[in-house]
Amino acid sequence: MISQMLFVPLALLIATMLAGCAVSDLANQAMNYAANQLGFVRADDNPAIKTLCDACDTGLDTCPTTCQGWLDAGANCDDSWNGICGTDHPSGAEFNDDQLKDTGADYCSPCSTAEGQKTAAFHSLCVDCSLGKCPETCQAWLDKGATCADSWSTLCSGSEVDHPQGAQYNSDPLSSSGAAFCPPCSEEGMTSSEYYDEAKDEAKDAYDEALHEHAEALKEFGEKHDEAMHEHDEALKESAEKR
Question: Which residues of 36-74 are buried (b: 16+ CB within 10 A; e: fewer)?
C-alpha cells in the first residue's frame, strides 16, 4: 500500500516532466496510469461507462455520436477522456484532457449551458449513489447548486433510481437529513442560501405583521383623537351658549 501511494505522485511527476519534452505519448501513458491509480477513472466503477469506453477503443465510428450517452451513463460536463476511460482518446492523445463541456454545442449541447451542466452534475452524483459511491456529506450536492429544500426526487428525477436508503426517503429534503450528513442545512448551521431565505421570509412576515399592528394602532388613535376633538368642540359650544 505504501509503495503504491509513493508511486502515484511519482507517476504524476514523471508525466509532468515528460509533458515538457517531445515524448508526449509516454507522458500521456504516465498520466493515464496515475489517473487509474488515484481512482479518477469512471470506467473502473461504472459498467455502463466501461461499455462505452470499450466500444470507443475500436474507433470513433462505434463511439456515441453525442455526449448524451456519456451523461446518461453517469459522466458529468467537467469530465475529460482521462477521467472517463483512462485510455487515449480515439481521435488522438492530444484530446485526453479535453472536458465534455469544451467539445462544443454540436457534440455536447447539454454541457453548453450552465443549467445543462448543473443537471448533468446532479445526474452524475445520482448514478454514483446507485453504484454505492455516494458522497459522505451533502456538500457535494450543494456545491453543484442544490438547495436545502431539494430532495432525492427533485435532484434525481431523471435517473430512475431510488434513494440509496430506500424509496421512502425520496421526498425528504436535505434539511431533514441531519447535521452529521448536512451541516450547512441543519438548524445549527444556518449557512446555506435556503436557510438564509427562510430566515429572511420570517423576518419579512414579522415586519409586515408589525406594520399592520402599527396601522391599526394609528387608526384607533385617530378615531379616539377625532372623538376627543368632537367632545372638546361640544364643550366649547356649550360654554359659549351659557355665557
Answer: bbeebbbbeebebbbebbeebeeeeeebbeebebbbbbb
Grid cell at residue 209: 405583521
Q: What is the pTM of this model?
A: 0.60
**Is residue 131 within 8 Å of 107, Cβ to Cβ?**
no
Q: What is the CA radius of gyration of the chain?
A: 32
Give SS3 for 62: helix
Give me 94's grid cell.
492530444
In whole angstroms, how far apart are CA 18 and each of 57, 89, 204? 25, 19, 61
Q: Are 42 and 125 in contact (CB under 8 A)?
A: no
Q: Between the CA of residue 183 and those of 50, 170, 174, what are the distances in Å?
A: 35, 20, 10
Other C-beta atoms closer than 10 Å to the C-beta of 148 total: 26
Condensed to tens digits (0 to 9), the pLDDT of residues 153-193 reads 999 987 778 888 889 999 999 999 888 999 999 875 544 45
- Residue 177 CA, distance from chain mean position: 16
Categorise residue 160: left if φ over 0, alpha if ψ from -120 to 50, beta otherwise.
left
Q: Dig out the grid coordinates for 133 from the structure.
A: 459511491
CB 128 within 8 Å of CB 74: yes
Contact between 182 and 148 (Cβ < 8 Å): yes
